[in-house]
Amino acid sequence: MIEDQQLILSTEDYSLLTDLYQLTMAACYVGEGLEDKPASFELFVRHFPDKFGYLIAMGLAQALDYLEKLHFTNQQLEALQNTGIFAHAPAKFWSLLESGRFTGDVWAVSEGTAIFANEPLLRVEAPLWQAQLVETYLLNTINYQTLIATKAARMRDVAGKDAILLEFGTRRAFSPQGSLWAARAALAGGLDSTSNVLAALKLGRKPSGTMAHSLVMAIGAIEGSEDDAFSAFHRYFPTAPLLIDTYDTIAAAERLAEKVKAGKMEVTGVRLDSGDLAELSKKVRSLLPDITIFASGDLDEWEIVRLKEAGACIDGYGLGTKLVTGSPVNGVYKIVEIDGIPTMKQSSKKATYPGRKQIFRCQENSQILSDRLGLAQETANSNEQPLLELVMQQGKPVNPPETIETIQKRTQASVASLPPETRRLNDPIPVPVNISNALESLRLSWIANH
Amino acid sequence: MIEDQQLILSTEDYSLLTDLYQLTMAACYVGEGLEDKPASFELFVRHFPDKFGYLIAMGLAQALDYLEKLHFTNQQLEALQNTGIFAHAPAKFWSLLESGRFTGDVWAVSEGTAIFANEPLLRVEAPLWQAQLVETYLLNTINYQTLIATKAARMRDVAGKDAILLEFGTRRAFSPQGSLWAARAALAGGLDSTSNVLAALKLGRKPSGTMAHSLVMAIGAIEGSEDDAFSAFHRYFPTAPLLIDTYDTIAAAERLAEKVKAGKMEVTGVRLDSGDLAELSKKVRSLLPDITIFASGDLDEWEIVRLKEAGACIDGYGLGTKLVTGSPVNGVYKIVEIDGIPTMKQSSKKATYPGRKQIFRCQENSQILSDRLGLAQETANSNEQPLLELVMQQGKPVNPPETIETIQKRTQASVASLPPETRRLNDPIPVPVNISNALESLRLSWIANH
């Protein structure tokens, strides 16, 4: 039974996690005898989120996992038939779905790679109906994880390599699964750990966290004071940071400092979640010079810069709402070749480049100089590296999944390879993306012929 | 085995879908012998997203489903133990989790109800460890669905009751599950249907959609022209709208109009996805006066108003990116009473009201005049209606889940009951929320005693 008002999502469901038109178009392709024509689609981002100079590609692992497992159950086909929408669809459509798997090739840039506008993160080469059908899911996973990885990379970049960056966004993430994917992309983008227990355990990491105001309020109400709450929590979690801003931050810090001086308590860290974080952190540092000071509360890369400029004494940042929500990465997935014929779109402001493409990155001394967007069949110059690699062949992944650590290192190297004007927060300038002569010729000849 | 790099989410996993500190605090409560103290937590929103005059409460169904099913497996407990984080936790913590279920009561406003800042959408009354543990998941589901339902209600409000509003956000939603929840909340908030096949089928609805540029490009490239693509799609889906902006919108409309006049084709609708939608829609209407015109492309409530003011001839709107992403609803979940003692927080800008509360809504002729935020034990005046109802008792739902249709009707009535200045997009003024004398006295006496 498909119907389920609670919207519980299982792996089996993923084949139906698509826009209706992907299925109606597939039926149309079958009817026209075009379903198996070799097609190539590319996934790219036309316009970046405001003030983003680069994007960090992320989400490929989940995309490949989806492609590998894609299939339809009889129950799903029945549910589709019962909608009545496919009354005029050819019978062969159903047998195609019934036995259908994803049998195509995928070329993609590695997760953790910096990319720029109009550069394909991924290309699917598959029978037309398959390449079309997978659009919605691929965009969903890559758009979101790329957004979060990029934000995480930006936060790491401004916070510096020694800052402790914690992912605290689960309560604000857009759905439970959204919180898992956010945690993965945040870690791969440069954060140190996540408070999300499930995400951490699934990724083989140790979850992290401090304590909440409610503990101070609950134990304080029953046992008498904020200090009783601190002592209680410290008893079971002696290395966990204490949250000291429930009532009077500085008063709490002063009392802790006295206990530390008197040798009554070993405090390793505190968290500040409200008030003037820069000023409070300086006072807390003077009272408790040897502890780790964490700050949280609607922080993002801009606020980290502001705090650092204000001389805040903050060692670690809890990053939540502004990391895991906000304006999206608006990736699109467009057909670039069908049956050997390059295609492009001419709609105003939404025109695309025709043909299967490759990104040739020109790098010197680990610094990106420029990119060249060319055709897939072009060869790289001696100082260039092609970024799109074959990651899935005939429906099977070419390599085993990478670890988060590997991807995190790649992200770090990617960001370090960018020019300062691309990394800066204010008015960043993207790395120049030159269009190859061959690609420009193809585009012009396409226009001349249409 | 918990570890799973693909982050597949199953219902079993939900107990670990929480911030680490919920579990460490639970262990601390056990150690202090406080785990079963009766506690009350309330979920509310301090500050609304920019320019929102009201919120439509949503996500309760998924919250209750989570509470009802909550339990820990041995495998999960083992994974937690293996982190080493709980080395000093009392042994009883593990037996508590092992046998633990949610056994508390929940009071909540019905889904589809308009609420204002600081009004509790939900109150959990349960043993302290349980009430604390569920915070993260409850916030996750209610924050997101409330955001989407509110946006959907705003879009419906400005588009008018006759407009066709379609949810097209899956490719931009934050994770696959995020897209399902977005579809649910959007329908319950006032949209007509969703393109998300899985969401539609799970909710017992018919999915909707048109066609994509890729079909025009693929069939056009092989069979020769845009018109061939239209004819092909029309053959199998004679009532589906045609997407006419791949090359030249007006030229495509003119050719379709000729076919319609000549009786060669029955066109029921078209979609415009780029260009000047107001101008194009007027021209298309003059060419094809009897068809349904859909528009899409980064539309939101502001853009709908702009299009209507520009005299656009648009019957239906495809709503995606700006419906399902963006700044979040920042709901919080705060302890308000422990062991019969009211609690509150005094941090700067983050102070809370103490005690278990009720919203008393004063309404006349189906119009909201004002709300009174009082204590739960206060009685309603004759012209007031209490909004928080008992929805879960001792861990069991009081009523079966509501249908989307029921919730959608409630949303519609809620929005209709708001004053015009609360509904408007520019500088909306929320309905006045008065603090009852009893609540204010409690707050003052709490402050006096601390």
UniProtKB/TrEMBL annotation, chains A, B:
Q: Give the originating organism.
A: Hydrococcus rivularis NIES-593
Protein role: Catalyzes the first step in the biosynthesis of NAD from nicotinic acid, the ATP-dependent synthesis of beta-nicotinate D-ribonucleotide from nicotinate and 5-phospho-D-ribose 1-phosphate.
Summarize the PTM comment: Transiently phosphorylated on a His residue during the reaction cycle. Phosphorylation strongly increases the affinity for substrates and increases the rate of nicotinate D-ribonucleotide production. Dephosphorylation regenerates the low-affinity form of the enzyme, leading to product release.
Major enzyme class: ligase
Q: Which stretches make up the Nicotinate phosphoribosyltransferase C-terminal domain?
A: 380-442
Q: Which GO terms describe its biological process?
A: NAD+ biosynthetic process via the salvage pathway
Q: Which family does it belong to?
A: Belongs to the NAPRTase family.
Q: What is its EC number?
A: 6.3.4.21
In this chain the Nicotinate phosphoribosyltransferase N-terminal domain maps to 16-143
Domain Nicotinate/nicotinamide phosphoribosyltransferase: start-end pairs: 166-285
Q: What is this protein called?
A: Nicotinate phosphoribosyltransferase
What domain of life is recorded for the organism? Bacteria
Q: Which GO terms describe its cellular component?
A: cytosol
* NCBIfam families (alphabetical): NAPRTase_put, PRK09243.1-3, PRK12484.1
Q: Name one GO molecular function term.
A: nicotinate phosphoribosyltransferase activity
Describe which pathway this protein belongs to, using the record's wording. Cofactor biosynthesis; NAD(+) biosynthesis; nicotinate D-ribonucleotide from nicotinate: step 1/1
Instruction: Please provide the record's keywords in A-Z order.
Output: Glycosyltransferase, Ligase, Phosphoprotein, Pyridine nucleotide biosynthesis, Transferase
